[in-house]
Amino acid sequence: SQKIEQNSEALNIQEGKTATLTCNYTNYSPAYLQWYRQDPGRGPVFLLLIRENEKEKRKERLKVTFDTTLKQSLFHITASQPADSATYLCAHPSDGYNKLIFGAGTRLAVHP
Amino acid sequence: DVKVTQSSRYLVKRTGEKVFLECVQDMDHENMFWYRQDPGLGLRLIYFSYDVKMKEKGDIPEGYSVSREKKERFSLILESASTNQTSMYLCASTPGGGASEKLFFGSGTQLSVL
C-alpha cells in the first residue's frame, strides 16, 4: 500500500539558515502533494499544494519542489526563525482520491 | 476564515464508557473527517462523511461509529472506550468535490482512557 515517509528525527537548525524537509512516497505517483504545519497540541494548518506538473511552488519564505522521478517532495524554509519551529506534515490523495494520506511529520526546531 | 470547532480540548474517560466527540464547522462544507494521531504513526483516518446521514469507513474504523444528522456537525462515538483509544482526535472538513482537497482542521481533542 502507499506510504509516505518523512524523517522521524527532529531537524535542528540555526536561525537564519534554510531548513529542508523531505517527503518520500512509494508506489503510485500522486497528482499533487500538500504540506501542513502543526504546533504542539493543535490541529494541522494547510501551507502549500504542489501539482505533479509543477516543479516548484513558492509562498513567501516557503518553497516546495516535487520530483516524480525520485518520488520525493522537498520543503524549504529560507531565513528560518524560531517561530518556524513546529512539526511539518506531508500528505497526498489516495489513489481513489477519496482521502488524504499523511506522513508522520518531521519536527523542526530553529534555535536563536 | 473557516472554523472547525471541537467541543473539548482534553477528556479523561474510564474503560468501558461511551464517549462522544463533537465537531462543528461553520462554512457549509460538504465533507467532514475524523482522524486520530499517535506519535510516530501520523494521522490515520477513522471515518468520513460526504453528506448528511452518509458515512464511509476510513482505515481504522473498528471500535468507533459516527453520526452526521446535520451538515455542520459530525460526531465520533466510542461505544466502549478502551485504553488503546487514548489518542489525539482531529476533526477536519473540506468544501466539496474531491475529498482530498486541503483540509481545515479543528484544534483536536486529547482523549485519555484510564
**What is the H/E order of chain A?**
EEEEEEEEEEE
Distance N to C terminus of chain A: 41 Å
Structural class of chain B: mainly beta
DSSP strand tally of chain A: 11
Q: Classify the beta-strand content of chain A into a percent band.
A: over 45%
**Total DSSP helices of chain A:** 0
Largest interface: A-B, 23 and 25 residues
Output the helix-strand order of chain B. Answer: EEEEEEEEEEEE
* Quaternary state of the chains: heterodimer
What percent of residues of chain B adopt helix (DSSP H or I)? under 10%
User: Based on DSSP secondary structure assignment, what is the total number of beta strands of chain B?
Assistant: 12
Q: What is the molecular shape of chain B?
A: globular
> How large is the share of residues in beta strands of chain B?
over 45%
Average of per-residue pLDDT values of chain B: 92
**What structural class do you assign from the helix and strand content of chain A?**
mainly beta
List the uncertain runs of chain B: none
Integer average pLDDT of chain A: 92
Give the biggest beta sheet of chain B: 7 strands, mixed
Describe the structure.
The complex is a heterodimer of chains A (112) and B (114). Chain A is an all-beta fold and 112 residues long. Helices cover 0% and strands 54% of the residues of chain A. In chain A, the strands form two sheets. In chain A, strands 2, 4, 5, 9, 10 and 11 form a six-stranded mixed beta sheet that branches. Chain A is globular and about 45 Å long. Chain A starts with a strand and ends with a strand. Helix content of chain B is 0%, strand content 52%. Chain B is built from no helices and twelve strands. In chain B, a hairpin with a 2-residue loop joins strand 8 and strand 9. At the A-B interface, strand 5 and strand 9 of A face strand 6 and strand 11 of B.
